[in-house]
């Protein structure tokens, strides 16, 4: 893989040319930044910027004013190759709080090892309705220890209004949901994104996550996508590398919450 070329394509198609990530959201291009604005249950934030030392602080202040004027917190999704090189420091100085850094990993689907079956005793259930959405959200709450109300709302809305843009699956051990994941498809691009792969404690280390990646990759092939993209935590990066994913850069959320 030509890392420089693929990262440039990712920046162009998935960031500068970003599309709304669900019903009720819209994307604005405001000068040198691209941002998404969504309802309370949606994701609000910056996905792309083209800044330098002369205009970065003003752009940051403008976005704070814009989102706080809407009464919303928001996220600035910072990538390791974004400029200026001290953009993270500038965001912290403006009141943003950094969250854990992840690795942007991309694979060409044709190069992946897809002959991976679920472990013995595990079956995969496609998510197509509200009951399935609740299973996904329940697994994520157990796996990550976080509230999944936003996920419930967004996934249900996508399945209802835009079902061709999402693939979700739950792994069951008998009737017990033990892992879940989804894939978001971006029409008109060559990228599909893998999100939310989480396995509840006690079922980790058995190959379920690896099988879920392969399952979604096969679905991407069937739909004609060339690349798969993942924002990988340190725990999942080794698994993804063994499957054929390559690290291209880092990504880190910087979160701003209105004061008062």
UniProtKB/TrEMBL annotation:
Q: What is this protein's name?
A: GCN5 family acetyltransferase
Organism for this UniProt entry? Streptomyces griseorubiginosus
- Outline the extent of the N-acetyltransferase domain: 122-260
PROSITE patterns from the xrefs?
A: GNAT
Supply the InterPro entries for this chain.
Answer: Acyl_CoA_acyltransferase, GNAT_dom
Gene3D superfamilies, per the entry: 3.40.630.30
SUPFAM superfamilies named among the record's database cross-references: Acyl-CoA N-acyltransferases (Nat)
Q: Which GO terms describe its molecular function?
A: acyltransferase activity, transferring groups other than amino-acyl groups
């Amino acid at each position: 893989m030509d890392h420089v070329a693929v990262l440039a394509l990712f920046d162009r198609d998935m960031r500068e040319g970003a599309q709304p990530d669900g019903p009720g959201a819209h994307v604005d291009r405001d000068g040198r930044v691209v941002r998404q604005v969504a309802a309370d249950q949606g994701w609000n934030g910056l996905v792309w910027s083209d800044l330098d030392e002369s205009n970065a602080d003003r752009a940051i202040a403008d976005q704070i004013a814009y989102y706080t004027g809407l009464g919303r917190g928001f996220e600035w999704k910072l990538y390791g190759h974004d400029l200026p090189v001290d953009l993270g420091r500038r965001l912290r100085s403006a009141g943003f709080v950094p969250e854990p850094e992840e690795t942007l990993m991309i694979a060409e689907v044709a190069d992946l090892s897809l002959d991976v079956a679920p472990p013995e005793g595990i079956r995969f259930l496609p998510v197509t309705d509200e009951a399935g959405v609740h299973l996904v959200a329940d697994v994520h709450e157990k796996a990550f220890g976080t509230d999944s109300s936003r996920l419930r709302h967004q996934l249900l809305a996508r399945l209802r209004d835009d079902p061709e843009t999402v693939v979700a699956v739950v792994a069951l051990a008998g009737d017990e949901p033990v892992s879940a994941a989804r894939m978001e498809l971006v029409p008109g691009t060559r990228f599909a994104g893998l999100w939310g792969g989480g396995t509840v404690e006690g079922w980790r280390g058995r190959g379920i996550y690896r099988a879920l990646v392969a399952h979604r990759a096969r679905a991407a092939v069937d739909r004609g996508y060339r690349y798969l993209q993942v924002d990988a935590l340190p725990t999942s990066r080794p698994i993804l590398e063994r499957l054929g994913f390559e690290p291209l850069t880092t990504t880190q959320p910087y979160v701003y919450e209105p004061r008062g």
